[in-house]
């Protein structure tokens, strides 16, 4: 009966959101793991909690006009989905990338509900962004776009209502421009309205590093439970942005050797270990392409086909670039090359078939919702510092982050065990995240 109920709701969701394949994929993945929960607690069926959860509380889409350096008026589309506020103000990043559409924003917002719940912090789920492409834009163009985007977004957000942060294409520069515009519109300094801010105006130490470091802390917990550690392991990390860079840095610090990373144009393979400062210099400081790495490290190889990065033999794979970057074929190659563990730093980087391939071949699998939750967890710590007008040291934030990642691991593994899926962290994370939000929704009535 539970299975039939969940299938019926899934059919309704796909019918109500036609063509939104990424959103359907995220919903399917979560729904499938909830069958034993619904079988054990029919109240969730009676309350129709799944259909309520899969329908955003609110979603806005808006015009973002801006003037480019040639004086031409450009138009982009902005989005904000306010998915669920049962546990706290909506919280989730903003993504600026040409592929952004309603389906991408909804898949990210839906996943965010469960991830934020897992952190144990009082935050609900939301997400936003625009199909604006920051690549090749001047600083002035980025600023004018961010200001125009905030002109509309400002009416929907606030420190107690909805608190956006960064994601792909949105780093501290973009957050700074958006914060400045919000402040001008509101005429007051509401530090807690955005997270990922500069340290000079309310940002938290450790936020920049949090998602990448948290990814590796989670991986270390997974390995520890299985009698091993990162020490001496060969690691491949996709991407070379915010999450990837700090995942590589922490993995190396914990004794692993990172041999490959990528960007949207290709990947580099450096058998002697990626020189992370060079990657940072090229990508963070010069907004350049990874292909430039080989000029400075001639022994490294550059390959234009970025998805081939998963052909490189490794013990640990950390996909940290984007959604669906590991399909079934790549997963099979990783398995054939005897990968021991996969930790999802990016959101939904593995297809459903890829996840199944890992799990059915005994590969330890850490799902995005749990693995990359360190970023939003430290964002919540930034909100706490803002409301108390304090700032904590890097060590204090980093220590809290480690504790949070450990707790997420323990809660996920325990939930999997309780509901008959021992060792299945993907199911455990979904279940642990779901229970808290579902119970909060029931307590708050049908609203
Ligand atoms: P960034 O924009 O900083 O970096 C993204 C990186 O991925 C860039 O190196 C980009 O290359 C690369 N990339 C994009 N598409 C592809 C592709 N198809 N193949 C290979 N590389 C690709 O984003 P973040 O690091 O912030 O985000 C990465 C992922 O982590 C996303 O899924 C995001 O949702 C998730 N995440 C981020 C959090 C955060 O705190 N930032 C928190 C939780 C999850 P290029 O330079 O060519 O664009």
State the major sheet: 7 strands, mixed
Question: Rough shape?
Answer: globular
Q: Unreliable runs, pLDDT <50, ≥5 residues?
A: none
Shape-level CATH architecture of the domain at 208-371 = 3-Layer(aba) Sandwich
CATH topology title of the domain at 208-371: Rossmann fold
Distance between the termini: 26 Å
Unique bound compounds: NADPH dihydro-nicotinamide-adenine-dinucleotide phosphate
Helix residue percentage: 40-55%
Derived from helix and strand composition plus strand pairing, the structural class reads alpha/beta
| Mean pLDDT across residues | 97
- CATH homologous group name of the domain at 208-371: NAD(P)-binding Rossmann-like Domain
The proportion of strand residues reads: 5-15%
CATH class bucket of the domain at 208-371: Alpha Beta
Walk across the major sheet and give the strand order. 9-8-7-6-10-11-12
How many helices? The count is 18
Number of strands: 12
**SSE string, helices as H and strands as E:** HHHHHEEEHEHEHHEHEEHHEEHEHEHHHH
Radius of gyration: 21 Å
Topology diagram in text:
Elements: H1 2-16, H2 21-33, H3 35-40, H4 43-46, H5 49-54, E1 58-67, E2 73-84, E3 90-96, H6 102-118, E4 125-130, H7 139-153, E5 162-165, H8 172-186, H9 207-225, E6 234-237, H10 242-253, E7 257-263, E8 266-269, H11 276-285, H12 293-296, E9 301-303, E10 316-318, H13 328-336, E11 341-343, H14 352-360, E12 364-366, H15 368-371, H16 374-388, H17 394-418, H18 425-443
Parallel strand pairs: 3-4, 3-5, 6-7, 6-10, 10-11, 11-12
Antiparallel strand pairs: 1-2, 2-4, 7-8, 8-9
Helix pairs in contact: 1-2, 2-6, 6-18, 7-8, 9-10, 9-16, 9-17, 10-11, 13-14, 16-17, 17-18
Bound molecules: NADPH dihydro-nicotinamide-adenine-dinucleotide phosphate.
């Amino acid at each position: 009966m539970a299975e039939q109920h969940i299938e019926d709701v899934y059919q309704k969701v796909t019918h109500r959101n036609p063509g939104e394949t990424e959103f359907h994929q995220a919903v399917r993945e979560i729904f499938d793991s909830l069958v034993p929960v619904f079988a054990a607690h029919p109240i969730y069926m009676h309350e129709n909690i799944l259909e309520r959860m899969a329908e955003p509380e609110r979603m806005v889409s808006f015009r973002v006009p801006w003037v480019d350096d040639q004086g031409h008026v450009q138009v982009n589309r902005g989005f904000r989905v306010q998915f669920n506020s049962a546990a706290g103000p909506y919280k989730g990043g903003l993504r600026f990338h040409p592929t952004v559409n309603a389906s991408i924003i909804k898949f990210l917002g839906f996943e965010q509900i469960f991830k934020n719940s897992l952190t144990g912090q009082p935050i609900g789920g939301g997400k936003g962004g625009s199909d604006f492409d920051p690549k090749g834009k001047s600083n002035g163009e980025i600023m004018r776009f961010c200001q125009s985007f905030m002109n509309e977004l400002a009416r929907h957000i606030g420190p107690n209502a909805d608190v956006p942060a960064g994601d792909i294409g949105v780093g501290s520069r973009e957050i700074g421009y958006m914060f400045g515009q919000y402040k001008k519109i509101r005429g007051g300094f509401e530090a807690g309205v955005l997270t990922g801010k500069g340290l000079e105006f309310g940002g938290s130490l450790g936020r920049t590093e949090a998602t990448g470091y948290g990814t590796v802390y989670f991986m270390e917990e997974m390995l520890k439970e299985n009698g091993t550690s990162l020490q001496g392991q060969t690691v491949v990390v996709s991407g070379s942005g915010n999450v990837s860079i700090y995942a590589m840095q922490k993995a190396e610090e914990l004794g692993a050797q990172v041999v490959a990373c990528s960007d949207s144009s290709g990947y580099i393979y450096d058998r002697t270990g990626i020189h992370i400062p060079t990657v940072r210099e090229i990508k963070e400081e010069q907004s350049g392409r990874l292909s430039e790495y080989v000029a400075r490290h001639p022994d490294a190889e550059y390959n234009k086909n970025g998805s081939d990065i998963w052909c490189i033999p490794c013990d640990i794979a950390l996909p940290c670039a984007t959604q669906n970057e590991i399909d079934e074929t790549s997963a099979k190659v990783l398995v054939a090359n005897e990968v021991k563990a996969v930790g999802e730093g990016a959101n939904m980087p593995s297809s459903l078939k890829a996840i199944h391939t890992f799990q059915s071949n005994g590969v330890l699998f850490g799902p995005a919702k749990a693995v990359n939750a360190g970023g939003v967890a430290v964002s919540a710590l930034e909100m706490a510092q803002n409301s108390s007008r304090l700032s904590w040291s890097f060590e204090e934030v980093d220590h809290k982050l480690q504790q949070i990642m450990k707790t997420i691991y323990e809660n996920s593994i325990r939930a999997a065990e309780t509901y008959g899926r021992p060792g299945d962290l993907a199911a455990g994370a979904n279940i642990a995240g779901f229970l808290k939000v579902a119970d909060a929704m029931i307590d708050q009535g049908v609203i």
